[in-house]
Amino acid sequence: MIEKGAVLPLFYLPPVEYFTEMTIYNPDFIIDKHEHFPKQTYRNRANIYSPDGILTLVVPVVKGSKVHTPIKDVKISYDFRWQRLHWMSLQGCYRRSAYFEYYEDELAIFYEMKEQFLFDYNERLLHLLLKLLKIKASLKFTSAYEEAYLNLKDFRRSFSSKKQSEYPQKPYYQLFEDRHGFIKNLSIVDLLFNQGPQAVNYL
Fold first, then answer.
1. Residue 46, number of CB atoms within 10 A of its CB
2. Burial class (CB in 10 A: 0-12, 13-18, 19+), 202
3. What burial letters (b/e) apply to 74-88, b meaning 16+ CB within 10 Å?
4. Exposed site from 8, 54, 69, 71, fewest CB < 10 Å?
5. Angle 5-8-14 (CA atoms, 0-180°, nearest 5)?
C-alpha cells in the first residue's frame, strides 16, 4: 500500500482529466479494485465527439450488479451487440481524424474479445492506452475496500459523467469543433485520435 499519492477508480476509455491526474501522481497512485459499483459513471461509459455533439458509449453490465457489488465482480453483458455499436461509433466519429488509423488495429481487438468482468476489460484497455500515450506507469491495486483514505487524494467520486467538469482544460483541435465548439474532458481517445503522439505533451 502506498503511503502518499492518490487512489483512482478504473474507467472505460477514461476522460482526459483522469490521465492528467494520473500523470501528476505517477508513480504514487493506486487503483481501487474493491469499491462498490456505482451506476452511471465512467466505470462503464465514455463520452466521445460525434457530428451531433457528445455521444455516450455505455458498456452494459449483467443485471444484478447492484450498488453493493464490488467492482471486480461486475460482469459485462453481451445480450446485445454493444461492441459492434461502440466500434462503429468510434469509426464514424473519428475515421477522418488525423491519427485514427495509427491506433485502430490495437483498439479494434477490444471490440472482438469477450472479457467476462468489467474490471478486467478496463484494466487491459488502460494498459493499452498508457502504451499508446507513451506513459510509463505500473498499475497497483487495493487489497480491500476502504471507505476513506487519510493520506491519499481520493478520486473515486471526483469524475462525473453527468455534469460539466470543473477541470481547466486548454483547447486542442477537435474534428467537429466548427459545429459545436471545443468540448472538454471527453474520452482520452478523442485526444489520441486528434493529437496522436502530441497527446502525452498535452497532458
1. 23
2. middle
3. bbbeeeeebbeebbe
4. 54
5. 130
Cis peptide before 70 (omega within 30 of 0): no
Q: How far apart are CA 80 and CA 60, in angstroms?
A: 9
pLDDT digits (tens, 9 = 90+) for 130-185: 999 999 999 999 999 999 998 999 999 999 887 777 788 999 999 999 999 999 99
pLDDT tens digits for 51-91? 999 999 999 999 875 567 899 999 999 999 999 999 999 99
Work out the number of other CB atoms within 10 angstroms of the CB of residue 170: 7
Task: Give residue 48's pLDDT.
Answer: 98
Query: Cβ(184)–Cβ(174) under 8 Å?
Result: no
The pLDDT tens digits of the residues spanning 92-130 come to 999 999 999 999 999 999 999 999 999 999 999 999 999
